[in-house]
Amino acid sequence: MSTTSGSERQRVERVALSRGLLRMQAKMVEKKNYVIRNNDDKARALVLEHPARPGWSLVQTAAPAESSASQYRFKLECKPKTTTEFVVREESPQETIYSLINVTPDQIGLWLRERSIDPEIEKALGSLVAKKNEISELAQKIANLDKEQNEIFRDQERVRGNLQRLGQSPDEATLRTRYVRQLEQQENRIAALRAERDKLDAARAAAQKQLDEMLRNLSFDRKL
Known about the structure:
The protein has helices at residues 105-113, 119-165, 170-217; strands at 2-9, 14-18, 21-38, 44-51, 57-58, 66-67, 71-78, 82-99, 220-223. The chain is α+β, with helices and mostly antiparallel strands. It folds into two domains: 2-100, no CATH class; 128-223. The strands form two sheets. Strands 1, 2, 3, 5, 8 and 9 form a six-stranded antiparallel beta sheet that branches. A three-stranded antiparallel beta sheet has the order 4-7-6, with no helix packed on it. The mean pLDDT is 92.
């Protein structure tokens, strides 16, 4: 007797979304082909034993004569001088869970091509991803403002240190005036940065509130 095995993941059959978690349910199908050669001149009765596994069930397979928690027993009739083939097919439900916070446009496109989602779901998920990207862009702008402000703070420390070391000569007086003007310009820039940061903070908070509301309100449970 010889055997060959194969497995494949079936297309997603059910998609459910709740509280920001996307659940996709599919089935893993495994097939094992038993090939029995009877070289005798008489027919032979054969009991074929196949392991039973938790979470897997028989599909498109003749009912076993006996079964237990760990094994199936199939009764086969092998004709003389012939080869008998018997196929055992099993399936197991598979669920994959995705957090919508981590979903990307490329992932959504792949799901659509695989028919794991339909266009309506694609549109809903796309809106969530767009809002998430908006928040990320605002956060990056805020980080850039903070970086510039910190660079100004460091430069101000350097300028103030230079001021403290200046004497009373005419050249040093000119340099002092230049340093003071530079500090004033930097203070104006800091004020502008803080005002811009306040606006971005407000925009980010509003966008985050919108995203949270979208995640709360968007839910479905659909068979494809």
